[in-house]
Amino acid sequence: MNINGIDGAVSLNNGVKMPYFGLGVFLAKDGNEVENAIAHALEAGYRHIDTAAIYKNEEGVGKAIKNGNIKREDVFITSKVWNTDQGYETTIKAFEESLKRLRMDYLDLYLIHWAVKEKYKDTWKALEELYRQGKVRAIGVSNFMQHHLEDLLTEAEQVPMVNQMEFHPRLVQQNLLDFCKDHGIQYEAWSPLMRGEIFDVEALKTLAEQHQKTIPQIVLRWNLQKGVVTIPKSVKKERIVSNAAIFDFTLTPEEVAKIDALDQGRRIGPDPDNFSF
Fold it and tell me: Which residue windows are transmembrane per the record (predicted)?
């Protein structure tokens, strides 16, 4: 990944440019909260917004983009199909409903939110059809382990462009990272800041002091240097601005390795192999 500022991007396996830094809106309330968060993000230079049907804030996301001073084509918008909507026909319908709530003609990226057994292959076929129709510029998955990807690839016409995974210093999953890289699947982080638990990691405190940066800034910079797209979530202007201040320093290879070594295989969110929703 060539890191050259907040407006930088990676090329997905179909050539689409995806900004490597964005705003996640998980748990942001629809209405003023999510609209203000996106307004602050756009003002700070963010050009990538990640939502999902289950977040119940797509309407607010669409309104914020419509009311912003940025052209629609200059903002990368991601949404996801929820588990109860998976299956071919129901995924097509869910996508159209997301577009309607967002008040958009297309999405930049549409993801399968979780690998629902016996459904995700049909769901993927629906995403492939939406992609063929030009209704979405890129398609991918979220929370897919290596065996899910291997299974999907036995029938897929399109290799997923993205795999969005829980990724942070306590959950690196280097083998999965390597698998995705080898297959041209862009890795993307959710919960990169461990829902605040990174503040308790002593090694990160030391690195932050050495670089005169905050702990989140250290971790988000590490994300990018690992080649991982990252979408930290916040609704506070000062935090949104601070999270983006990661382009004026570089971690050494030794420092990246030190953060890698913090891996404990510990999840903050659900296990993709054992979830019940």
Answer: none
